[in-house]
């Protein structure tokens, strides 16, 4: 059983915002030309299966990006897929959908029927940060893309 101190701990808004800022910085280091890529463009890294992405929406202050791990994984492991909204004016990136689940609450009661982690929203955004760090470490900056407009 989870102790009541874990279940009742309040979410730390400052820590969440820091994660969003770092994820934005990582994405912009990884994809430095993201703001110039047209809406509907699909791109992947040439010679790599590490990332495939699609610009779902592109506006002056926001970009919505669908990211997928480019390599199918054996069952029962699912290929990571998420939708990330970047707020260019605020310099933050937030996961809005992960594995076809969306509208994450900041905190869930435990236990819960959907089996969400107590801090599901934070954990999904932390995972994005870890994935981006891995991509930066293994592939560096993705300066060349194979871009195709849908």
What is the N-to-C succession of helices and strands?
Answer: HHEEEEEEHE
If you compute it from the alpha carbons, what radius of gyration comes out, rounded to the nearest whole angstrom?
16 Å
Number of H/I helices:
3
Taking the alpha carbons of the first and last residues, their distance comes to 49 Å
Overall geometry: globular
Structural classification: alpha+beta
β content, as a range?
25-35%
In percent, how helical is the residue content?
Answer: 25-40%
Domain count: the total is 1
How many runs of DSSP E, i.e. beta strands?
7
Question: In order across it, which strands form the biggest sheet?
Answer: 6-5-4-3-2-1-7
Would you mind describing this structure in some detail?
- The protein has 150 residues and is of the alpha+beta class.
- The protein contains three helices and seven strands; from the N terminus they run H-H-E-E-E-E-E-E-H-E.
- It has a seven-stranded antiparallel sheet.
Give the SSE map.
Elements: H1 4-8, H2 13-30, E1 41-45, E2 52-58, E3 62-68, E4 81-87, E5 92-98, E6 101-102, H3 120-139, E7 145-149
Antiparallel strand pairs: 1-2, 1-7, 2-3, 3-4, 4-5, 5-6
Helix pairs in contact: 2-3
